[in-house]
Design brief:
- The protein is an alpha/beta fold.
- 29% of the residues lie in helices and 16% in strands.
- The protein contains six helices and eight strands.
- The strands form three sheets. The chain has a three-stranded antiparallel beta sheet with strand order 1-2-3, with helices on one face.
- The longest helix has 16 residues, at 22-37.
């Protein structure tokens, strides 16, 4: 069989084990803090308003159709035309970074974990994120533009900035709270369902 890179599954298993170290307890506490505070991974500095209905963001992403140039998917909010073979994927959510790693895709940019991780990325991610631009909280549109993405992945917390982000590149909302469904969703978007 083929070997899957470490990613969200490894992190989830690590978190599920009983805390035997301060690092795990700190990671669990940080995840709870992020969930409670509604952190949106650096997109908070964008202040555009949106008329997007945020209900139902946990719906799976569906493939509508594809050809050799484009793939049309339906995310929880709308249909999105994405490149058939995106080469410069920008992850604006911690979980999306894990899904990309699991699918063998190195993003061009990913949010930093701050003080939780040496060099900004968690230990299990570092081997897969060499050369990736770390996005500090507060990174804004200018930073994203400089990276020249051809696809942007966000979670439901970042969906309030969707209208601004999709002016930079096709932007897909990966809204599921189930890590297995998120992996399948990102697989659909990237045309890698067979690896999800």
């Amino acid at each position: 069989g083929h070997e899957r890179p470490l990613g969200v599954l490894t992190f989830a298993k690590w978190l599920a084990e009983p805390p035997r170290s301060g690092a795990r307890a700190l990671a669990v506490g940080w995840c709870l803090f992020l969930a409670i505070s509604g952190c949106n991974n650096g997109v908070s500095q964008l202040t555009w308003t949106t008329s997007i209905d945020l209900d139902g963001l946990d719906r799976p992403i569906e493939l509508i159709r594809e050809d050799d140039r484009i793939r049309i998917v339906r995310d929880p909010l709308r249909e999105v035309r994405v490149p058939a073979s995106p080469r410069r994927v920008l992850s604006l959510a911690f979980a999306n970074t894990d899904e990309l790693i699991s699918l063998g895709v190195r993003p061009i940019g990913a949010p930093l974990y701050g003080s939780l991780a040496r060099d900004g990325f968690l230990e299990y991610q570092r081997p897969h994120l060499s050369g990736v631009t770390g996005l500090a909280p507060g990174a804004g549109l200018e930073t994203y533009l400089r990276l020249r993405p051809d696809l942007i992945l966000i979670n439901s917390w970042g969906s309030s900035s969707l209208e601004a982000l999709q002016k930079i590149a096709p932007t897909v909302v990966v809204g599921s709270t189930d890590y297995r469904q998120r992996l399948r969703d990102v697989g659909v978007v990237l045309g890698r369902s067979d690896r999800a």
